[in-house]
Amino acid sequence: MLIGIIAYLLVIVIDNITARVYWQWMLKLSWTILLVISLVNIAFLYVSGVKLI
Q1: Where are the alpha helices (DSSP H) in the chain?
Q2: Which residue from 18, 19, 22, 30 has the highest number of Cβ atoms inside 10 Å of its Cβ?
Q3: How many other C-beta atoms can be found within 10 angstroms of the C-beta atom of residue 22?
Q4: Distance between CA atoms of 49 and 51, rounded to whole angstroms?
Q5: Rg over CA atoms, the chain
Q6: Averaged pLDDT in 10-residue chunks for the chain of 53 residues
Q7: CA-to-CA distance for 32 and 12, rounded, in angstroms?
Q8: Are 14 and 29 in contact (CB under 8 A)?
Q9: For residues 42 and 27, what is the distance between their CA atoms, to the nearest angstrom?
């Protein structure tokens, strides 16, 4: 949950920093960052041994 909140806030910060770029570039950047954060989250769940089922 904490990583999800951090990802959401990071996207807002990136959106505010890059206010004058094309929307296509912003979309690629935000999805790339979210993909990396998601992979880190999945790796953390795997390493910590969390059972989701």
Answers
A1: 2-17, 23-48
A2: 30
A3: 9
A4: 6
A5: 14
A6: 85 82 84 91 89 73
A7: 14
A8: yes
A9: 22
Residue with tokens 């960052």: 33
The candidate with the shortest Cα–Cα distance to 25, out of 35, 36, 12, 14, is: 14
pTM (two decimals): 0.58
pLDDT of residue 23: 83
Inter-axis angle of helices 23-48 and 2-17, to 10 degrees?
160
Return the biggest CA–CA distance within the chain.
Answer: 44
Side-chain half-sphere of 45: how many Cα atoms within 13 Å? 13
Q: CA 4, 8, 9: angle at the middle one, nearest 5?
A: 120
